[in-house]
Amino acid sequence: MANINANATVERARAAVDLLRADALQIHLNAIQETVMPEGDRSFAAWAPRIAEIAAGVDVPVVVKEVGFGLSRETVALLRAAGVAAADVGGRGGTNFARIENRRRDPADYAYLDGWGQSAPACLLDAHGLDLPLLASGGVRHPLDVVRGLALGAVAVGVSGAFLTTLLDGGVAALVERIRTWLDQTAALMTALGARTPADLAHRDVLVHGGLRAFCADRGVDTRRLATRSRGSVPSNPSPRGNP
Ligand SMILES: Cc1cc2nc3c(=O)[nH]c(=O)nc-3n(C[C@H](O)[C@H](O)[C@H](O)COP(=O)(O)O)c2cc1C
Question: tRNA processing: present as a keyword of the record (predicted)?
């Protein structure tokens, strides 16, 4: 995927796709990063119409992503109306661009934005059922987070900071090894949950606790349905002995 910001013109979007012979184009949204960045943008009104223009004007699917503050249900609905192919919720909890940009400020006067945004699980729950494929990223720390993202409806999960750190510490070989380990362990966790495919995870029960449960209550997300949803599904690998 090529990657541009939401101010880019259609011509530049096409150029980015051509340059990389990309299969898809990502447009990143980073309003809070821009806000904390001393030289950052201060107006975002052009983003929605520009995204619609780019989605109509390039030949590859367009994926809009956040960079670590999350996308709300309302934003995802707006993106669907703009004609994008998928949204990556890019939630809070990993790389924190408010903190990073704040370090470049003197005095660091946006330090209070450290906890801004919503986690990827919160965003996935919030945007569920909007008829737009969702990707999960932001704060993915280990294979269980991958499984959580898939179980909460993401069609794919993305990792940035955790893999970048491995690459910087140990080089390419270490990163390849880490990715292999993640793949093995993701498969092991799927086995433990009785899921033959990643898509099967979307039929496993999910229990939501603590602050995320309160978020769901406020946003009208039905956590009871999630906690019992396997009752209504037919497993793709029914056990011959009829075990649950
Ligand atoms: C060094 C660095 C550079 C990044 N540059 C971009 C970028 O150009 N475009 C983009 O969409 N996201 C960019 N990101 C954000 C990541 O794609 C991702 O959304 C964010 O780091 C949250 O995921 P994480 O918690 O797994 O790190 C960058 C992240 C890092 C750490």
Answer: no
Does position 164 have pLDDT exceeding 50, yes or no?
Answer: yes
Which atom of ligand 1 lies nearest, measured to the CA of 67? 19
Domain that residue 171 falls in: 2-201
81-99 pLDDT, tens per residue?
Answer: 999 999 999 999 999 999 9
Structure tokens at 66: 């956040």
Residue nearest (by alpha carbon) to ligand 1 atom 22? 138
Give the separation between CA 159 and CA 142, rounded to whole angstroms.
9
Protein residue with its CA nearest to atom 12 in ligand 1 = 67
For the chain, how many structural domains are there in total?
Answer: 1
CATH number where 167 lies: 3.20.20.70
For residue 37, tell me if it sits in a domain: yes
Q: Looking at residue 240, what is its pLDDT?
A: 46
- Which residue of 95, 159, 182 sits with most ligand 1 atoms within 8 Å of its CB, as the best mutation to test the pocket? 95
The Cβ of residue 174 has, within 10 Å, a number of other Cβ atoms equal to 13
131 membership: H or E segment, kind and range: none
